Request: fold
Amino acid sequence: MYEYSLNSYNTIFKGALETSKKDNVLPARIRFIIERLTLLFYEFVCMGIFEAHKLTFSFQMTTMIMDGEGTLEKRELDFFLKGNTSLDEVDKNPIKWLDESGWKNSYKLDSLGGVWAGFQENMKDYQKKWKKWFDEETPEQVEMPCGYTDKLSKFQQMLVAKVFRPDRCINAIKNFIMDKMNPIYVSSPPIMYDKIYKQSTEKTPIVFILSPGADPQAEVQRLADELGYGQSKFIFAALGQGMESHAKAMIERGAIRGHWIMLNNCHLLVKWLKTMEAIIENLQKPDKNFRLWLTTEPTDEFPLGILQKALKVVTEPPDGLGANLRSNYVRLSDEDLEASERGEFKQLIYVLSFFHAVI
Amino acid sequence: MQAISWIKEKEKKAGLRVLTFNTEGFVKLLENAIKFGTSILFEGLDTELDPIIDPVLEKNITKEAGIEMLTLGDQKIEYNQDFRMALVTKLANPMYSPEIFGKTMIINFSVTLGGLKDQLLNQVVEFERPELEKMRKELIASNASNKQEQKELEDLLLSELSKESDVPLVDNEPLIKVLGDAKSKSIKIAKDLEIAAETGITIEASRQDYTNVAKRGAILFFCMTGLSSIS
Reply:
């Protein structure tokens, strides 16, 4: 489902040029553009990918940027991703608390040279200190033995985590991204429906990729009410067998009259989507207010043409308590929060959203 | 994208029609193009081509009474040799069957890191320093016309010299005049080109300030397209 076109990327690029901060000093201006571009890009992509892929994406982006700067040590990255891939037998593991794959990996790490030379010796010699670090609950936040925290970059610290505590690799990656880029790039931006609307046009359909339990229709309905596309201008239907001609008529009529059309569960009528692609393509000058909202479960058969053109939005409950709280709060405006004079009001709101986030 | 605009530009004179397999009545339009020798571009291809165009790809041309004919569907139509057809897909790595690879000429127009970088650089410079981008475009145009003129002069010289004439070369006044003219003109053009090269260097230097933006932009794009390998 993750298909993008150069066209949609160009829109982001232009947006970044237009909205980044101006500065008379050229290097500063260039920095502003780059920062703005990276942020807009991150937000755009995150909107359309699943929670589970966001860190992978962020990590990939960071390493690619480093590669472009020439600061990426490819062999280290390779080790981090694949570990020790050689088939050679290794000596018996002298460190009791370290598992076999960790011991094998330490061979490879040692062989990378530079700051890693003698790392394995060090592990063996200072077993006690390493054991203490190994036993920490959050080792990535604690100083490593023998001054390795200072000796190694955040990137290299991930490799140590790979050897000792593979379970903490995720956190080590987050640390690395925060250090190299910005903490923003490890958090997932909350979905703002009005923002999505602003990015869309009458020619770009909006595709919601569904995850279990998500119901974007209610949100879209609310947005429609807010923007004055009440009952008569917001028309929705769930696709299913026998709906083909009805849906076609809906789209065509909506394009002329400037309605919002929402077709739910496109994955149930995947064969018809090709026809829909043609219908969308053949629309003659759709009304400026026309919007086409589609929802679908992930499917490989979704036509590429629509996917590349469309704005893709993944609706998924955000990961973690903080993000959940935030997504509750973005739906409230400042006026909503100030609606009552009683001080307890805000506290009640907080408690309620906390409750929502927990369950 | 670029491929499409390039083809559109190039085939404009040949009456290019842009179609997809979803366009209503595309077969009729295709027939007309074959008959009248115009060009056709099919956009948004998938991995499967509509089998109706097979005879066109195979060039199943038969001669009947000296006229070249092609059978498309159940109709026989006259085949005009000026007819051209291009097919464009958006797929990054399309898996076509060997027959299609055999019957068509496949050209990879997908964007490369370097290409995208140049493109984005143009965009940034155009936005940040429009005058610079304008200058660059003008320079390219004037360079081209100067070079063209230079070539014409050279051709003129050769054709004048090779003309047979009764008068000995050294006494041929009109010829000497033409030669003299050509010489002074070509010196001027050479100078112009030299200046242009210098300005080109300064423009390029100012543009280089923005390469970091372009580079980051290109990297990010490729990061995005790489996502399709996840899902």
Notes: Residues 113-229 of chain B form one domain. The mean pLDDT of chain B is 85. Chain B touches chain A through 35 residues (CB under 8 Å).
